[in-house]
Design brief:
By secondary structure, this protein is an alpha+beta fold. The chain has two domains: 188 residues, no CATH class; 42 residues, no CATH class. It has four helices and 13 strands. The strands form two sheets. A nine-stranded mixed β-sheet has the order 5-4-3-2-1-6-8-7-9, with helices on both faces. Strands 10-11-12-13 form a four-stranded antiparallel β-sheet, with no helix packed on it. It starts with 8 loop residues before the first helix and ends with a strand.
């Protein structure tokens, strides 16, 4: 992961989780829960942050939303955000900002960090490190969208693409993963370990199965319309025994892939 030139949002979430597990290996036993939530457009319900992933953490005092991609932290749990409940601006901070230019290069214009791509002026011979001149502007634009969505309560349940309890995800659990309850509810995938509050998802609806050895990976199958909108069509999940389980939105039950 550290060898690639850049990461996308879900990979930042997973890297942040791995770093936390490394720093606090007993946190799971102490009741800390880390969830990764993915958001996407739904029919008639555009996602306020596009296709994007964020973390939700409980068991550390107040519940937290963490966005490792843009460096935003908010005091909020998943049901609050999912149901479009506005979060006061005083409960949100952005303690860090990632940039793709060297801020110490002489002559780099401030517009590279705050303006549009067309405004960016770099010193002669200088270039972005592994990225285009649009990245700084795009990152700040995404951060503004995330902040607005949190403070104005713009998320909706239909925007949930997936919700993963990392205690049931073998590579992120910090050890042996818990058994995973895997569900397809509406257009969303849920992977839950033990102790997930009932308010997070109704396990009496949708199609569910249990993976006794936890989950090792998952994939979302999309159909892409001529407009470019991607709509989830199904999910594939691999368990700790290397079995793959699949479901699409027309199926009523999970099936093991031969």
């Amino acid at each position: 992961m550290l060898g690639v030139p850049r990461l996308v949002c879900n990979e930042y979430c997973e890297l942040a989780t791995l770093l936390f597990r490394e720093a606090c290996p007993t946190a799971t036993q102490d009741g800390v829960k880390i969830y990764e939530a993915g958001w996407n457009d739904a029919a008639g319900t555009p996602s306020p942050v596009g296709n994007h992933a964020q973390l939700f953490v409980t068991g550390v005092g107040v519940p937290l939303l963490l966005d490792p991609t843009v460096g935003i932290i908010a005091r909020a749990d998943f049901p609050t955000i999912e149901n479009g409940i506005a979060v006061p601006s005083a409960w949100m901070i952005r303690p860090s900002t990632r940039i793709d230019y060297d801020p110490y290069l002489p002559g780099t214009q401030a517009s590279c960090y705050t303006g549009s791509p067309a405004d960016c002026v770099l010193p002669s011979g200088a270039s972005a490190r592994g990225s285009s001149s649009t990245n700084v502007w795009a990152m700040n634009s995404l951060a503004s969208d995330v902040a607005r969505a949190i403070q104005q309560g713009c998320y909706r349940p239909a925007n949930v693409l997936y919700f993963i309890d990392t205690s049931a995800w073998t590579s992120l659990s910090g050890g042996l993963a818990s058994p995973a309850a895997v569900g397809q509810v509406g257009h969303a995938l849920y992977v839950l370990g033990p102790g997930v509050p009932a308010a997070y998802v109704n396990q009496q609806s949708g199609a569910w199965t249990t993976l006794s050895s936890g989950m090792t990976s998952f994939a979302v199958e999309f159909a892409v319309a001529s407009s470019g909108q991607a709509t989830p069509q199904g999910f594939n999940v691999a368990d700790g025994n290397r079995n793959i389980w699949s479901i699409n939105l027309q199926m009523s039950a999970w099936q093991e892939v031969p």
